[in-house]
Specification:
The two termini are 13 Å apart. By secondary structure, the protein is mainly alpha-helical. It has one domain. Helix 1 runs antiparallel to helix 3 and helix 4 runs antiparallel to helix 5.
């Protein structure tokens, strides 16, 4: 499971659809609807949020919005609740953002060279659910 801290617009088609599926799985875990993946380390930051299910709803909504912008139709009815306006942002460290950026660039260079060329010269944009803070790679990351 990869719950990117990076903005969905940076993902290729495969990455965007995988992000959607994996975030739906994360939502199921947070709602207690599955017994699998309950200990997945990337869920820690959502569990620590004051409104875990609202946070994952906001996360999913941003993915769905980017999918719609591209002309894809993700079933937003699968988002269990409406995102809460003003939901507290989740902090993500500079080191984590750098790690994910390099990881994404490697994936794109192999899988989607055209998308790689579009994003490689830029800088990592964050998913709107996150705010960058100083620090190394997050302790929950498994490099």
């Amino acid at each position: 499971m990869r719950l990117w801290s990076l903005h969905p617009e940076l993902l290729d088609r495969q990455g965007l659809t995988a992000a959607w599926r994996e975030a739906l799985l994360a939502q199921a875990v947070l709602l207690g609807r599955t017994r699998g993946y309950t200990k997945h380390p990337q869920l820690e930051r959502f569990r620590a949020h004051e409104q875990p299910t609202g946070a994952i709803a906001s996360y999913l909504s941003a993915i769905a919005a980017d999918a719609a912008r591209r002309g894809y139709r993700f079933d937003v009815e699968r988002i269990a609740e409406l995102p809460t306006p003003g939901t507290t942002l989740i902090p993500v460290t500079e080191g984590q953002v750098a790690f994910e950026w390099e990881h994404l660039l490697r994936k794109l260079s192999e899988r989607s060279p055209a998308v790689h060329e579009q994003v490689v010269g830029g800088s990592p944009l964050l998913h709107p659910m996150f705010v960058v803070v100083p620090g190394d790679i997050e302790p929950w990351e498994r490099p």
